[in-house]
Structure to design on (123 residues):
């Protein structure tokens, strides 16, 4: 991590998790094997970190390719700059992890759209 904004991410994520995120931000969707090969981490560590990033932090998503040989790949669900921005908000105003702030904002916007649609008789 290079600058003070990047340091915000260290508050919420481990060094291994940040390495995985950086790789996904730089290269896009990757398989577990690709991540292992790129970062020279153990398969167990990569799988454990991906599970945390996907299920607890909500910053990584998983998809299965539907070609003749199905393969799982992982991708970042939120960009680095947005995650830093949300991290700064979380540090200032709450103890909620950054990605959950994003989810709450999306839900609030969806409620506002539904409310508008009801008032405009669009639902």
């Amino acid at each position: 991590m290079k600058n003070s904004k990047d340091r915000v991410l260290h508050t919420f994520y481990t060094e291994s998790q940040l390495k995985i995120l950086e790789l996904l931000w730089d290269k896009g969707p990757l398989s577990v094997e690709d991540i292992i090969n790129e970062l020279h981490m153990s398969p167990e560590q990569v799988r454990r970190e991906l599970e945390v990033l996907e299920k607890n932090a909500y910053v990584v998503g998983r998809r299965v390719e539907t070609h003749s040989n199905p393969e799982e790949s992982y991708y970042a669900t939120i960009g680095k700059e947005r995650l830093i921005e949300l991290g700064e908000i979380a540090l200032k105003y709450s103890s909620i992890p950054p990605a959950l702030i994003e989810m709450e904002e999306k839900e609030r916007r969806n409620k506002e759209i539904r409310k508008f649609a009801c008032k405009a008789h669009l639902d």
About this structure: Strands lie at 60-64, 72-76. The domain at 4-119 is CATH 1.10.10.10 (Arc Repressor Mutant, subunit A). The longest strand covers residues 60-64.
